[in-house]
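Minutes, project huddle
Topic: does the predicted pose make sense with adenosine-5'-triphosphate bound?
PN asked that the exact inputs be recorded in the minutes so nobody has to dig through chat later. Recorded below.
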Amino acid sequence: MLEIKNLTKVYGDGTVALHNVSFDVEPGEFLIIIGLSGSGKSTLLRCINRLIDPTEGQIIWDGVDITAADPQQLRTIRRQIGMVFQHFNLVKRSPVLTNVLSGRLGYVNPWSSVLHRFPPSDRKMAMAALERVGITDQAYKRADELSGGQQQRVGIARALMQQPKMILADEPVASLDPVLAHSILNHLENLNQEEKITVLCSLHYLDLIQRYATRVIGLRGGEIVYRGDRKAIRSMTDEEFKEIYGEEAERVSVGPHDGGVSL
Amino acid sequence: MTMRRTQKEIPPSFVSAPVAGVASLIVPGLGQALARQLWRGLLLLASLATSIGLFLWRVGDLAPHEVGLVAKYLKAFDRRELFVGLFTLGIVILWLGIAWDAYKQVKTDHKGGAGVFFIVLALLFALGWQVGEIDLYKMITEIPDAWGPIQRIAWPWEAAIDRDIEMIVAGAEILSPCDELPPPAAPVEMPDEPYVVADPTCGDLTTREGVTEIPGTQITLIGRNFAPNTETPIYWADPLGNEFRLRSEGAYLSVMTDENGAFEITITMPYRLIPPSSEGRQIHIVEARQIASVGGAHASTELMQCIEGIVESIIMGMMATLFGIVFSIPISFLAARNLMSGSTVTMAVYYATRMVLNIIRSIEPLIWVLVAVMVVGLGPFAGILALTVHSIAALAKLYSESIESIDPGPIEAIHATGATRLQTIMFAVVPQMIPPFVSFSIYRWDINVRMSTVIGLVGGGGIGLVLIQYIRLLDYRSAGIAVWFIAITVAILDYVSAEIRQRFV
Ligand SMILES: Nc1ncnc2c1ncn2[C@@H]1O[C@H](COP(=O)(O)OP(=O)(O)OP(=O)(O)O)[C@@H](O)[C@H]1O
Ligand SMILES: [Mg+2]
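Predicted holo structure (tokens), as shared on screen:
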């Protein structure tokens, strides 16, 4: 469903964040991207929905080249791709419900929605999305009154409102407590398995990667240095992991039972 | 690994400690400079020079007529021996202190030595006391004299109510000064109407020469056909329209009529209020006024003036805030770094805008009023203009800072949902902007109304103008009403603006 061909991103200051990256994403995958800080994970994910314009290469989404899409096409493509962020990126002072409804903006009439007017069906859908992530009771609170874990669930609910075929998650659990990490990733896994939403997620913890990934891509200095399927990941050793991450990686205890490797 | 604070290597002194001390004794600060403490030396030299300079200025002020420094100094010492003596001692101590400091600098490895700066501080404090003409004794002892006006300002409400009164009034014309032409004639005596006859009908007003008072001509007033057995105050009106009650040795002058409604009293012509340069025959009027009857109470003219004034002030503040908001919004975009960091040109615009805003803001609204009055004349418009100018600068700065501190995360997130640019602005930018925007606007409204009550003092209209007029007329009661109105308005505003802002932040 998504083909990335020879993707290169050079920032204005000359930083080469991605260099000749190519891979395909199959429907229903839970693809995890790993790599050291600065290896280009965020850049890659943002190129896919063109929050960042790639320098070279192509991104083919259902046969359409995103890099060449006109604004109208881009809008239709973007609304099929939900995005979840490390720092949640909620509008802090707006109510939770408004934050969730804003996931609908790609579908509704651009003019009437400007005044925060949404059809009743969308409101129902928003409550359903909140129910799905288990925080219906928080709907009318201001977003910044919620805990970190709850805020990320609002972020997921917002992405759900797009009825996405794919969710891009940029380190969705990096600013959360390790225990909460499982809860958030569980939600993503449910969506992946039940709704058949493809997930493209960047992550740092080996135990989380082993638990959730159906496939892994390792980035280093903007290039792909590792590709592994489910089986390869399960048998991945700390040594292999360190090879992708470099020697600085060290063992950190995550969660109640497993140990993991982290930065 | 922990960081270790490294001791800065200090180069050794050029000279030995006693040499440094003596050097500073001859040229203050030289010793420190020789001890490789150039800045310390310069600072101490500057402190000493400043102290001496300011001191000599005060000495000159105390003895303006003497010629030569020594004569001035001796005269000043004569007048303020405590201050001059102690200060001279202080300077000597500072001088010696600097020498001692230079010695210590070499002796003790540049350590310590804040003591000498305390001497500087003490000297400056003593000077400040003198220059500021601080006089606690006067402050305490003169309270009784000010007590009357203070009381009237503190509780002015008697002036808020007027009663309809019917007066019996009759007066006589007085010429001042006398000239060759015949003085004004006595009024025609009528059998039933009240009248006053003055004798003489011309004379000189009281004047002052230096500190001695030259009393005016004495005039005998005879009144007839007034209400019997009634207190009758005597009023004086000059050709300019100044009207006041006559006084005699501080007390208001009044006379009791007899059972026939007649009186006789001798008055002294009052101070001249009109400039001596005014020419021509000046006819003053002396009047006897009796209160015949007292009617119902109603709001006094002064109260109404104060109400009008405070309403005008509040409206001035609101208009200025409104204009300020409207104009500062577009300007704030130009002054927001994150919006303007695109190219060198926009950066230049950014710096220019910032600079202009800073300059405008550093000039107080009270001074802007003076400028505005030159342009549009006295009145509320001048006040609105002045407040608007200052508000634009202040608000543009605050708004631009809130634009700068906007969180780009939500913008990215909303954009990623497929939202249009306008939708992104409405959902991600506006919600972030509204709270600081409302908060700053209310805060400015608060300041503007507050300021609008005082800018009238320098011609900006509103309650301030009313207040300063009463103060000039020494009408402390009416001034008191204005002061109360200002205080009440500001207190209410304080509360309201805090409430509103709390809701939004
Ligand atoms: N806007 C930008 N301008 C210039 N260079 C950038 C910009 N954004 C990122 N970079 C650089 O591009 C490289 C890749 O950054 P990116 O944020 O994609 O890394 P990342 O893998 O997401 O890292 P992290 O794990 O810390 O989030 C880094 O060297 C970074 O400094
Ligand atoms: Mg990143």
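Observations noted during the meeting:
- Chain A touches chain B at residues 49, 51, 74-79, 81-83, 85, 87-94, 98, 102-107, 110, 113-116, 155, 158, 161-162 (CB under 8 Å).
- The first strand of chain A starts at residue 2 and ends at 10.
No decisions taken; revisit at the next huddle.
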